[in-house]
């Protein structure tokens, strides 16, 4: 990878519920010698609650334009921010009229399609690459891992950077650091239920429970994922799910950047491994 | 119940196709791939996106727009990814939901779901601060959903008492994790809120 500076869009949960994802993303890139420059004054991508595509494009045009003015590609650790940034980028590249319309609303929305929006996982595996990463590994992480991708890395096809049904990018990173992927392909891309959490918690809990119990059945020591909404459902809500179904799951859930960070020899605390809701001590015991 | 052909609205499909995301409705040939792979259908077997599409094509306007199932789509994009006809079902459902919201605003139907209230509360915080503000969102959403402030606070406490304590203990909210005593409890505001105001004035969803 040639560029040593990338614009960083942390996404809203980075300050609170997903702060360990933010901490570990920053720590991993620092270790790899790539500077993440937080986009100054970035705004929320609209998540999945802004349903009007044009509104989503306008909101993300502002973020894309901020990065473009710095001449940097924009990277985010959140799958939903990624989807919104990437689809806004595509729509604006293809539609001159829309670009003009947004510029008319405010000059800060002028975006000319000269930068790319990327997800952290995409940058790690496809831009930096496994070969370069493997040269920087200092520890072996002897874990059985259930790689969980969720929705927006492999879907929809327009913005996907991995396979929709059997994605592999996290599997590759997990193997690279000496950990083992448990058989999980039937669950990898099933929705965590996150978007229904606030309006139909009953459905959302059932969706999340299936994923958690499948990981347990497959013999995983932990679930590894790459989206703060999935993290919220599977980790932060796990005690609520256990209570609702009267089951014990106790499945640690960590972000892929936390796992990779361990193999890169970064201090667990710097990776926020004390911030995950389900205790991660058992994971740390298996870092050699 | 048999369909009353004289009550069908032949223009409904065009109404949907004029809404962003609804453009590909008529490409559907009813193969049901969407429904077979749907993770919500797995849990609620009566949830059937194929059927919603067929009803839309037939012009069953009122039945579609007042169907509570519109609001339990998880937006997971599985149907969109697998559809052999590129109907973009996830976006299509969003287009139908927006028409339903307009119909409700016009007093023609009643939406049996709290989701529009949630989306509105979300967009209000975004419009006001430029970033998501969980607590502000909850303080608007729960009272609206429950129909009163007191009932709303009760429901919110029930959902968030344990969760909030977890966040507090881990320092994700409150003073224990650095970032100030009120971390996560006060909104994070961006500087250029004026731009967001303009965006929402020009493009904000109707009624939001």
Describe the protein in words.
The complex is a heterodimer of chains A (288) and B (208). In chain A, β5 (144-147), α6 and β6 (180-181) form a beta-alpha-beta unit. The longest helix of chain A is centred in the N-terminal third of the chain and has 18 residues, at 53-70. In chain A, the strands form two sheets. A four-stranded parallel beta sheet of chain A has the order 2-1-3-4. Chain A has a four-stranded parallel beta sheet with strand order 6-5-7-8, with helices on both faces. Helices cover 44% and strands 9% of the residues of chain A. Chain A folds into two domains: 5-120, Up-down Bundle (Glutathione S-transferase Yfyf (Class Pi), Chain A, domain 2); 132-284, Rossmann fold (3-Layer(aba) Sandwich), CATH 3.40.50. Chain A has 288 residues and is α/β, with parallel strands linked by helices. In chain A, α2 crosses α3 (79-94). The chains are: A alpha/beta (288), B mainly alpha (208). Chains A and B meet through α2, α7 and α9 of A and α3, α6, α7, α8 and α10 of B.
SSE blueprint and pairings:
The complex is a heterodimer of chains A (288) and B (208).
Chain A: E1 5-8, H1 19-31, E2 35-38, H2 53-70, E3 74-76, H3 79-94, H4 96-105, E4 117-119, H5 120-134, E5 144-147, H6 169-176, E6 180-181, H7 201-217, E7 222-225, H8 228-236, H9 238-245, E8 253-255, H10 256-263, H11 281-284
Parallel strand pairs in A: 1-2, 1-3, 3-4, 5-6, 5-7, 7-8
Helix pairs in contact in A: 1-10, 2-3, 5-6, 7-9
Chain B: H1 12-17, H2 33-36, H3 39-43, H4 49-58, H5 61-65, H6 78-82, H7 89-105, H8 115-129, H9 134-146, H10 149-169, H11 193-203
């Amino acid at each position: 990878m040639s560029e040593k500076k990338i614009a960083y869009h942390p996404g809203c949960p980075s300050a609170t519920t997903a702060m360990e994802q933010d901490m570990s993303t920053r720590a991993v890139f620092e270790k790899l010698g790539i500077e993440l420059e937080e986009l100054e004054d970035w705004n929320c991508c609209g998540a999945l609650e802004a349903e009007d595509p044009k509104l989503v494009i306008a909101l993300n045009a502002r973020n894309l334009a901020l990065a473009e003015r710095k001449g940097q590609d924009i990277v985010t650790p959140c799958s939903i921010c990624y989807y919104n940034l990437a689809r806004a980028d595509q729509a604006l590249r293809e539609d001159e009229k829309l670009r003009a319309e947004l510029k008319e609303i405010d000059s800060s929305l002028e975006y000319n399609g000269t930068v790319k929006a990327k997800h952290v996982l995409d940058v790690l595996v496809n831009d930096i690459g496994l070969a370069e990463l493997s040269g920087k590994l200092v520890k072996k992480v002897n874990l059985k891992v259930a790689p969980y991708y969720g929705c927006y890395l492999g879907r929809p096809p327009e913005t996907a950077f991995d396979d929709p049904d059997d994605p592999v990018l996290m599997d590759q990173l997990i193997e690279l650091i000496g950990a083992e992927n448990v058989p999980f392909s039937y669950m990898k891309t099933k929705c965590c239920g996150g978007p229904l959490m606030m309006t139909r918690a009953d459905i959302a809990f059932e969706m999340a429970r299936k994923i958690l119990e499948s990981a347990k059945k497959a013999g995983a020591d932990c679930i590894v994922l790459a989206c703060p909404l999935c993290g919220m459902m599977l980790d932060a809500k796990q005690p609520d799910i256990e209570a609702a179904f009267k089951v014990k799951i106790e499945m640690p859930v960590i972000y892929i950047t936390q796992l990779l960070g361990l193999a890169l020899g970064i201090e667990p605390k710097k990776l926020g491994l004390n911030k995950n809701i389900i205790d991660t001590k058992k994971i740390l015991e298996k870092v050699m | 119940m048999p369909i009353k052909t004289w009550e069908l609205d032949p223009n409904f499909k065009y109404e949907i196709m004029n809404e962003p995301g609804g453009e590909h409705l008529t490409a559907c040939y009813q193969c049901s791939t969407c429904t077979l792979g749907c993770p919500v259908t797995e849990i609620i077997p009566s949830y059937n996106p194929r059927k919603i599409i067929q009803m839309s094509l037939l012009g069953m306007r009122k039945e579609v727009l007042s169907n509570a199932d519109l609001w339990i789509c998880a937006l997971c994009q599985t149907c969109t990814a697998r559809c052999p006809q590129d109907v973009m079902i996830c976006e299509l459902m969003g287009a139908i939901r927006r028409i339903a919201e307009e119909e409700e605003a016009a007093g023609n139907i009643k939406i049996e779901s709290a989701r529009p209230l949630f989306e509105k509360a979300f967009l209000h915080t975004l419009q006001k601060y430029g970033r998501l503000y969980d607590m502000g969102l909850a303080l608007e959403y729960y009272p609206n959903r429950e129909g009163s402030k007191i009932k709303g606070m009760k429901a919110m406490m029930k959902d968030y008492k344990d969760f909030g304590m977890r966040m507090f203990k881990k320092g994700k909210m409150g003073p224990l994790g650095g970032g100030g005593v009120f971390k996560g409890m006060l909104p994070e505001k961006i500087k250029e809120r004026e731009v967001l105001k303009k965006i929402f004035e020009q493009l904000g969803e109707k009624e939001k």
